[in-house]
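Same chain as my last thread, 784 residues:
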Amino acid sequence: MIRQLEKENLINQETKNKLEADFKKFYSNEKLTTWDPKTAAKPPSPDGRKELDVSFYDAQVPELKPKWIEAAANDDLDIIGRYNNNWKDYFAAHYTTQGRLNGIRGYKEETKIMSENYKETLLDTDKQRIKDVALGEGKYFDTLMKSILGPKEEEETKKYSALVQNTLKDTIAKLNKVKNQEMQWDVYRSLDGFSEVLDLNKNLANSIMGDSGIGGYLAVSKKKTTAELTTDLETQLEKTTGFRSNVTYNWQKWFDDQLVEKYGIDYKQFQAAEGTLDIVNTALTADVKKIYDKKDKKFTAEFVKKTGFNTSERLTEFLNKQGETGTNLLARLQNSNDSMPTELMPLKTNLEDKIKTLNTAKNRDVNLTYKNVKDIPEQVKIDASFARQFIDEYLKPRFDFSKSMDEFRDYLNVIEKDKNIFQTTDRLTEVKTYAESIAKAILPDLNNERFNYTFGQSEEDDNFYFNPRDNYAPPEMQVIYTKQKKRVNDDWNAAKINPDALIDKDRPELGTWRENAYLYNINVKDLSDKEIFGKLHYEIIGSLPAFNFDPAMNPSSTLKLKFENAIREKAEGIKTVFGEFTTPESYADTLLKNIDPLANKIEWKNLLNKYDLEEDATTEEIKKVIVDSLTSGTAEEIRTKIKELQELEETPTQKNLGVTYIERPEENLATDVEKTNLYKIFKDAGYTDTEKNFYTNYMTGTSPEDIKLLTNVTKGKLPKFDFTFDTKDPTAALNKLQELDTPTTKKTTKKTTDYFKIGLDDEEEEKETDSDSFLSDYAALFKK
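reply #2:
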């Protein structure tokens, strides 16, 4: 209206201003409701310490400011008048009535600086320690070895080395002496006229067996081969003539009576008591259900190994030799139950007293000369119990496994660069080598994120803040861990139940969980998330000096866990300073046991590729290849010769293997040698000689290839030929086989050395049967 009057020039400016002022006053007083700043809602914050950040809110609602400017320009009382001519009131009113209800924040969220930026890394000293161990040097390396193995490990290793050096020296001296005797014997044998004298007993035995004509009858009656009977007779003649045809030596007797007794003085007196005590101590710590297998009537492999015996039979044999004490203990172990440990304690006490009495009877310590790594000799005192332990756990396993003294000598190798798990290796060397390998494996991870831990992380999971565990942390931290675990989990449960409750009644200034959630821009529902709540909790409470909670595992502890713990476990697995004697068979068993072809497909494929095996290879095939590849040198040589003799059904002896061979009664003939069906037929009919002699005597000229061929033929592997046999009639079977033999007639000009053809002209053409192989013409067909 005022503006219309002004337009028609009916009112002047002064009147206009007066009218407008009166109207504004009237509108403001009578019609307009102004905003009361006291009613403004404050954004949630702990202890209400936060106010609305107008500048921040302006950025969240950009359309508000232009509206205020426009209202001010138009003198719009509904806006500028309602909000007291104060734009901050305008913004506060908008937040109170609209913004907060629509989830618009009233101030900028705070950053969880303490938890988001938290990181623990390895110290430079930790890294340097790993580098030192990888190089096998440094003060830390020596300290680590002493902490794991104990301060006496180096001293005991020196004792062990002194024993090995001296037993090796004695072994080599005796071996050389016996070998020289054998060489002298061979020289005599090569001289004209001496061979007949040296073979006197052998020639007499052959003459008696052949001329008397009773060899075959004796063989059938005594169920022995002719060769075995001849050997028996030759042995008896040696006693009569007082003359031996070759050098022989009882290495087992030398080992037991000379080598063992030299270093383990009165060893046999202690063997019964200490061996029995070892069995008792093993039984006291074993699971009574895993001592004896009543179904198989044998001690379990686990129990046998822990007692130090090779087989259940050896363990049983030992106990049976210990008189009433041994037989009673054997019966008790075979019927083990829960009451057995209590019953064995008196026996344990008696044995310990007996050993103590023996020990005090006289001084049995041994003083030995030892050459250290610098080849400087020094005197080392070996206490008697240590020497006996060396014999039991070091010498005996190696001697019992060896087939020859050359092999046994190699297992006593003490050259540092040649030490390995198949030869001489002490516990200190094994652990040091293992530590170096672990350190080298860790080295690449020292400079990456592998050992860096952010909030909540540990080696096992990301749950460290809720469940702190660190066995290497100091005692004061272990106390904090206990409090931390309870407080964090209790607060988490409380926050999920009632987020509006005070976090700590004793610290009301901390506010509620909802207020703190708003402060850090966290949805209240997300308080149930472990990671989100954990970081919020550490920011509010855990980082306070009064609590000092630990957000993540110390990387140094992880390093100890992955490094020192692994080395410690390795050391604990090696029971004595001597180290465990690992045979190729046990190594192969361990290797195959640790690689599951289904779970570790890559490792299994790599194993097959390493030994050039097909994917369908059986475990036994793989084991054989691994064992063969690991068995080399003198060990491989003697075992190959033994196998060859066994396949020929000849008993391995020093006569056919040399004087270094260790003759043992248990070295029986091989039972898995494949026989031809023809030989089996005659064997079943009463033939007692070897397969080799069978073909030599009855099928002159048969070669090993022929025997192998016959094995396949008589098993019917080539069905187009009639290879069926009457297994009840040996003669018919032989005739059937001879039908295959149609030798061709050929001309030959080759020079012969056959005794019966001496004197024939070398160039004379004659018709003869090819004596190289009686199935040679058929062999070509079979090979196609």
